[in-house]
Amino acid sequence: MNAVGEVVTVAPEDARREHSQLRHRSGGHPAPATTVTSQLATLAEFSVVPDPRGARHVVGLRLPDDVPQPGPALLALHHGLRRLRGDYGPRSVHLPGTAPGGTHGYSEAFGAKVRFGSRSAVLRVLSGQAERSGLAWRVRNTLSDRLGVQSTALADVARVIAVQPRTIQRALVDEGLSFAEILDCVRRERAHSLLIGTELPLAVIATHLDFAEPAVLSRCVRRWWGHTAATHRQIRETVR
């Protein structure tokens, strides 16, 4: 069983019991962590709950409502999962309150969408019971190959991978994804590579991303990173 599977297949009441046992200390030190759940509990106490958005193969790791700094606590869980599992499939992060200075920095830290104004702090993750279907990766790879070269419409991608469009949509929804989100992620990665690694004008980069005009690229860059394309290109100078 993989690391995330050991986390998310624990029932909420079992997770709480294990956390409680972990809190018994000897000599001021935590009890030994013998499972992945208990290892993560040393970073932040959480409950495993059904996905707040209803995706079949996604669960939520929810913090108690009285956690004083839910953002850093969820980020500790995120880093712990990354160390144990690598790309464990974060779907989105939901935090109470408002984002000081916007959500861009939070999204970059978590590698997933971050939404504020939630009643509870929840990290939505792909269930280890499900694993990745493989279909999401096939869609992503096909989009990456076709972006800026051939059509990236759902019907055309479905034809390439020989899967019905409705089947693709249902499978992605079960994993807490959508076709549009995967395409946006592929575009974001390609945009970063072209802005940082080339001197191509924005109009040419927009074409490579299959955007109708540079203005669409500019709006997306602001949404992705919270600044202009010109500012993003300055990153190249800071890393030399």
Explain the overall architecture.
- With 240 residues, the chain is of the alpha+beta class.
- Helix content is 52%, strand content 10%.
- The protein has a five-stranded mixed beta sheet with strand order 1-2-5-3-4.
- Strand 1 (47-50) and strand 2 form a beta hairpin.
Layout of helices and strands:
Elements: H1 3-8, H2 12-23, H3 36-41, E1 47-50, E2 58-62, H4 70-85, E3 90-95, H5 104-110, E4 113-116, E5 122-126, H6 135-146, H7 154-161, H8 165-174, H9 179-197, H10 202-208, H11 214-225, H12 229-233, H13 235-239
Parallel strand pairs: 3-4
Antiparallel strand pairs: 1-2, 2-5, 3-5
Helix pairs in contact: 6-7, 6-9, 10-11
Which structural traits does this protein have?
240 residues, 5 strands, five-stranded mixed sheet, 52% helix, alpha+beta, single chain
What is the overall number of helices? 13
Q: What class do helices, strands and sheet pairing give?
A: alpha+beta
The separation of the N and C termini measures: 42 Å
Radius of gyration: 20 Å
